[in-house]
Amino acid sequence: MMDILSFEFMQNALIAGLLASLICGIIGSLVVVNRIAFISGGIAHASYGGVGLAFFLGLPVLPVTTAFTVCAALIMALVTLRVRERSDTVIGVMWAAGMALGIILLDFTPGYNVDLMSYLFGSILAVPRSDLWLMGGLACLVFVLVIAFYRGFLVMSFDEEFARSRGVPVDFLYCLLITMVGLCVVMIIRVVGLILVIALLTIPPFMAERCTRSLSRMMILSTLLSAFFTVAGLWLSYAVDITSGAAIIAVASVCFFLSLLLPDKKRG
Amino acid sequence: MVEPVIVINNLKFSIGDLLILEDVSMSVEPGDFLAVLGPNGGGKSTLLKLMIGLLKPDSGDIRILGRLPGEAGGRIGYLPQHTHVSTSFPITVLDAVRMGTVKPGLGGIAGLNRTSDEKAKARKALERVNLLDHQNRSLAGLSGGQMQRVFIARALVDEPELLLLDEPTASVDSTSRASLLKLLIELNEDMTVVMVSHDISSLASGVKSVACVNRGLHFHKAPEITGDMFQMSYGGDGADNCCPVELITHGHVPHRVLGLHHEEDEDKS
Fold first, then answer.
1. B253 within some domain
2. Which of A253, A257, B103, B129 is least enclosed, having the fewest CB within 10 Å?
3. Each residue of B60-104: pLDDT tens digit?
4. DSSP characters for A151-173?
5. Is the pLDDT of residue B231 over 50?
6. Residue B80 sits in a domain of what CATH number?
7. In total, how many domains does chain B have?
8. If DSSP codes are grouped into helix, strand and coil, which group holds residue B101?
9. Can you tell me the mean pLDDT for A118-140?
């Protein structure tokens, strides 16, 4: 295990994975308790439009994708708040439109030879140092925001209508949450790819929810689970030479199904 | 003459082209126990949400405790419909009750989640609903009736003057229903209670006045179905001003309230 850490790309991969785990644990918990996994999937897929845009304009991928994804996320958040009953349809359309835009823009890009697979299934072994700094910055931002408004997120996630009745600015918190989901998605795409984002965002929190009694503990436990899945998946992908993103999700899925066999501690 | 707790004048509310409420006027005195009855889709919950400020009326005027809806803040305790909350949410009973102390605006949502003062208040509220022994249990492990008590405690924790309850007895079994109603009657000694229900058996005891909502609103100072209400139900355009008589027959004690008006009942049902 130690010898593989001597490669710089492996060190970068490990740092990227652990940063993504921290964010996944926190934001993923909020995604699960707010039941917004679908909109998160929409954001993840629409972000591919940002990847296409970055290559088309010849700009750095991560900043452009981040900006594009946050815009798409905010549009989805506003649609959800305004036209609640048809929001799933609109999100579904943006989901597909974002991906299509990405592919079309890549078609128009001269000399395009980017490996599409690396964005769909992740390219954690190819994360450069510069991206790590950006990921670290985003991770800090999300971490600080969630701590700053923890109480509000807790009250909104538990019972939105009650929160509104108490004068809690739910719309603000909701838009903030969706924006953070956008940031989170961009980071996790690096690790497991946009197809598998939802798995890493939902599997650890779902497992954690079953055995905790507070949102903060759910976040901590999800972070630890994510970190374990990421490290174990990375090791597995190195040991048997398979795609890293798929290996991470494979580990998470196996643990997920095993956890279903355990009794639910909270009930009874 | 004491100032009424709730004053509503000529309220109108619609969603798109669909008219939900119109010409709604009423005034609720302090200490009242008002049951708001009506069929599903008749606008009962909408009326409650308008009072809290979750929805904005098209026209008309609402004053709650002398203020606009949404501004009476901590003086109102609200119990939303049971179905809103995910039962698997990771939280203890005590923490769920503490959420009732959250303050409005950005200041109220900032920071982490702990003060011992809040815990003491939450314990007091739990004691009132007879759940203090369960304070450290996970909410997911409670029965429907117990969970409803937790949410009533959450509404009580900030010591409100007015309690607004949306279907408090829906989705609980009949034993819990009876004890919930008993609890509400006890609470009514200290505060005004407004309870939305499609369950006419809630009229059985303790309720001091009744409002029938089906687009329009008919206010009755006594807890019984009067001849008036039947007139409005069956006379004229039934869709406009209709009491939920068909639902009465599904209630637990339908004959107690139907007895006086059996002729009309037999004619039409």
1. yes
2. A257
3. 889 988 888 877 667 889 998 876 677 789 999 999 999 888 887
4. HHHHHHHH-HHHHHHTT--HHHH
5. no
6. 3.40.50.300
7. 1
8. helix
9. 84
- Of B72-76, B192-196, B239-243, least confident by mean pLDDT is B239-243
B130, B149 contact by CB (below 8 A):
yes
Instruction: Specify the CATH class of A3-259 in words.
Output: mainly alpha
Residue B243 belongs to some domain of the structure: yes
CA atoms within 13 A on the CB side of B53: 18
Greater pLDDT, A157 or B85: A157
- Amino acid letter, B240: D
pTM (2 d.p.): 0.84
Q: Is residue B62 part of a domain?
A: yes
* DSSP per position, A32-96: HHTT-HHHHHHHHHHHHHHHHHHHHHT--HHHHHHHHHHHHHHHHHHHHHHSGGGHHHHHHHHHH
The length of chain B, given as a count of residues: 269
- How far away is chain A from the Cα of B228, in angstroms, using its nearest Cα? 34
> Exposed (0-12), middle (13-18) or buried (19+): which is A3, by Cβ within 10 Å?
exposed
Query: Are A161 and B80 a contacting pair at CB < 8 A?
Result: yes
Question: Which ipTM did the prediction report?
Answer: 0.82
Task: Examine residue B70 and state whether it is found in any structural domain, yes or no.
Answer: yes
Domain ranges of chain A: 3-259
Which tokens belong to B139?
């909410």
Interface of A with B in 215-244 (CB under 8 A): 215-218
- In angstroms, what is the C-alpha Rg of chain B? 19
Average model confidence (pLDDT) across chain A: 88
Q: Which residues span the domain enclosing B179?
A: 6-92+160-268
Pairing status of strand B192-197 against strand B33-37: parallel
Give the nearest partner residue to A215 out of B73, B90, B110, using CB atoms.
Answer: B90
